[in-house]
Amino acid sequence: MNASIIDPLQGDFPEVIEEYLEHGCMKCIAFNRRGTLLAAGCNDGSCVIWDFETRGIAKILHDDECSSPITSICWSKYGHRILVSAADKSLILWDVMSGKKITRIVLQQTPLQARLHPGSSTPSLCLACPLSCAPMIVDLNTGDTTLLKVSVSETCNGPTPPSRNKCSDGITSFTPTAACFNKYGTLVYVGNSKGEILVIDYKNGDVHAVVPISGGSVIKNIVFSRNGQYLLTNSNDRIIRIYENLLPLKDEVRALDDLSGNHNDLNNIENLKAVGSKCLTLFREFQDSITKVHWKAPCFSGDGEWVVGGSASKGEHKIYIWDRAGHLVKILEGPKEALIDLAWHPVHPIVVSVSLNGLVYIWAKDYTENWSAFAPDFKELEENEEYVEREDEFDLIPETEKVKGPDVDEDEEVDIVTVEKDATFSDSDMSQEELCYLPSTPSRDVPEQQEKCVESSSKLLDSNNTGSPLSEEAGPNGHMMNHASSPLEDDAGRMKRKRKPSEKVLELQAEKVKKPSKSSKSEKPKSKSLADQDNVVL
């Protein structure tokens, strides 16, 4: 590999950390097919779905039966389903729109990775790669599992799994094996611990081809590009290899049968290797020849033009980006936190990485301001220039435009309903049932003023219920007031000074004390008249 760094202006790839997402402790991530939603599996067993355009949380999926860390997460083709694998040996299938659990299956081994069948909008099959067991096909409807072969014996006539030590539960122990579906899910490509890629028809379990890798190191990761034309492997020898897929994207099984028929004169293993040489051919190798680092979560860009891999070294967050020709174009250096997972956006030059602390970092291109993009006739000047305007430059209809006839047919109807097909999604049938966005469900906040009113009214009711020995009443503003001792107040709440009673009023009051008390009916109007006279100003 050429270790020289080429001019970064030649490619459209991320350069700096744009922002980060934080919610609990996230462990793994996956984009939906359009890149509008980002799903992240958390340490508490929940799955959070982010709206990647607004960078807000769209939905949280949580099962009370699962509280173990999520080990992998996968979207269905049209985004209606999400499959997660957890450290408690479970597989959970979710309905994204409703947020309800469809099914939960418990395996005998912890699945490190699980992938839904890519050829169905509502898949019922998934490919699981357990910790100490061969990869298996899991029927999500019934829970049935079918183990796939991981090796081919050179002495036997047929493919057989190698003999290994038995686990305590009786299951044969294997080194963790990587596996993935091809583009349309007709075949499974398995990378084993002997440094071989097995091409398997999962429906009958037959091994159709074997592709040996130079060095024979354990294959840790295996993944196809989006268009299905390239296959990536990550081995223990610290080399990322890219293979070109020579099989047709459709009818691959039939093509494999035709290739096998041409090599019937060879024994089984030689026949499989001969077929394998017609299936995959080595295209490129990527490595850091200086530091010899192990790689974490390598993958392709959305268009397959770039290859990205994270450094598996502890205490560093480095992301290496190569072009498909083998040149190292960029090394992204993040915080001093180990990298555990990463994903490239399906459409835009954006890489999302997960740190050991559970933060998700979003790497994007560092765009510079270009004002000519907003006005095509805008021209940047190095220094001020004297400009003489035309006579009709600022007229509403310049004379130059009056001469020209209209080039646009104003009567032509503009179609604003039909959606043009995006070339990025060549495999898309533009199905209307594809889920690209989730509706927001905002929660209503209680107004602060309303909270104060509720609190004050509750306090007032409590004070009234307790009762007071004093003859007090609540004022109009909630204040307690004693009419016998408090000063008078007008309607506006202003204080009024008391007026001194006149001599005539004092004489009337003295006569009232001397006269015997009469009925209450006669006293009421009299007291009212006294009050009226008291308010008279002399």
From TrEMBL:
SUPFAM superfamilies to which the protein is assigned, alphabetical: WD40 repeat-like
Matching PROSITE patterns: WD_REPEATS_1, WD_REPEATS_2
Annotated region described as Disordered, given as residue ranges: 438-538
Compartments (UniProt record): Nucleus
Record field: compositional bias (Basic and acidic residues): 445-454, 502-531
Cellular component terms per the entry's GO annotation: Set1C/COMPASS complex
Pfam families: WD40 (PF00400)
Keyword Cell division: no
Stretches forming WD repeats: 26-60, 67-104
Domain of life assignment: Eukaryota
Biased composition (Polar residues): 455-469
Key words, A-Z: Nucleus, Repeat, WD repeat
PANTHER family: RETINOBLASTOMA-BINDING PROTEIN 5
Protein name stated in the entry: Protein RBL isoform B
